[in-house]
Amino acid sequence: MDVFRNIIKSEDGSIMGMVLIFFFVLTIIGTAFLSMASQEGKLSIRSVQRTQALASAESGINIGLWRLNHGPDFQGTFSNGSMSVTYDSVARILTSTGTSVSVSKTVSVELWKDHPFNHIVAYKTQLDTSNYTLNHLKGRGIRHFDPLPGVNHAYYDSIANYHHVGDTSFSAPIDTGIHYIDGNVTMKNGSSLIGTLFVTGGIKFIGTVSIQAQQMPDSSLYYPAVVVGDTAETDILGTPLLIIKGAVFSTGYVNFKGDTLTGPIVANKVVLKAGVVITDYGSEKYYKYPPGFLGPDIYDWEKFIKKGSWASSN
């Protein structure tokens, strides 16, 4: 009997030990799960903070861009409780840092500025259209601008290949190059030009006339085909059979009827009627800011996001 009692006592001790070990293991596992749950909660909170910080940074970009396009450039720099935004007007870099508790996210974007020569037709005060055909690349359509760029008379006067004083009439092909005319011009049937016609007065086209712009030496830029630098009531009057390949600029008024034009056409008032055809032929070569015009940086035209980068810090 004593032997059996000893065996039972021995088994009781073994069972008790196993129970203690089991509870010890459960305690470790439970503690581990509690630690994991706590860590997961912290990670979840951190993830929410990162999302909030990024949302604040992107909101700062949107607000900053709106402020830039509705006021002077210095308004692009501002801050509030959740975002800090700065604008570098020289590099055209808009940077926004959003913050949520101890997490911050930074978004930086490079901006580009739209300009009148970036569109097939750009006008300031009035656009009058009737029975016309317009073909252009995506994003190059008709657009209103205020102000229009200023033209530098002295620049074209200095680089002109030919100078004409007083009212001038052409009825035959004109020598290739830049013609600076201080007065009014009439281009009659049979006249043509490869180059630029810069006129201080008005221009009237009659019959079959063609003008094709020249490319600047060692550059991808083109000189405008026609430039009128005054503010007369009627600056450019086109008639059927007129063909112009290159930019047309007038500080005043242009009226085209039945012509074929490549654009861009930039003028205070633009009238397009009687089956006029305006097309860029699927090419971007004339959609560039031409020489001899005040730099686009001085005008507060609308800005757009060109490209951006996202960074983060904790």
Keywords:
alpha/beta; 314 residues; single chain; 17-stranded parallel beta sheet; elongated; 5-stranded antiparallel beta sheet; 22 strands
Detailed description of the structure:
The chain is an alpha/beta fold and 314 residues long. The chain folds into two domains: 2-113 and 303-313, no CATH class; 116-294, no CATH class. Helix content is 24%, strand content 37%. It has two helices and 22 strands. It has helices spanning 2-69, 153-159, and strands spanning 78-79, 83-88, 93-100, 103-113, 121-129, 133-135, 143-144, 162-165, 168-170, 177-182, 185-187, 192-199, 203-205, 209-212, 226-228, 236-237, 242-245, 248-257, 260-261, 265-273, 277-279, 303-313. The strands form two sheets. The protein has a 17-stranded parallel beta sheet that branches. A five-stranded antiparallel beta sheet has the order 1-2-3-4-22. Strand 1 (78-79) and strand 2 form a beta hairpin.
Please render the helix and strand layout as text.
Blueprint: H1 2-69, E1 78-79, E2 83-88, E3 93-100, E4 103-113, E5 121-129, E6 133-135, E7 143-144, H2 153-159, E8 162-165, E9 168-170, E10 177-182, E11 185-187, E12 192-199, E13 203-205, E14 209-212, E15 226-228, E16 236-237, E17 242-245, E18 248-257, E19 260-261, E20 265-273, E21 277-279, E22 303-313
Parallel strand pairs: 5-7, 5-20, 6-21, 8-10, 9-11, 10-12, 11-13, 12-14, 12-15, 13-16, 14-17, 15-18, 16-18, 17-19, 18-20, 19-21
Antiparallel strand pairs: 1-2, 2-3, 3-4, 4-22
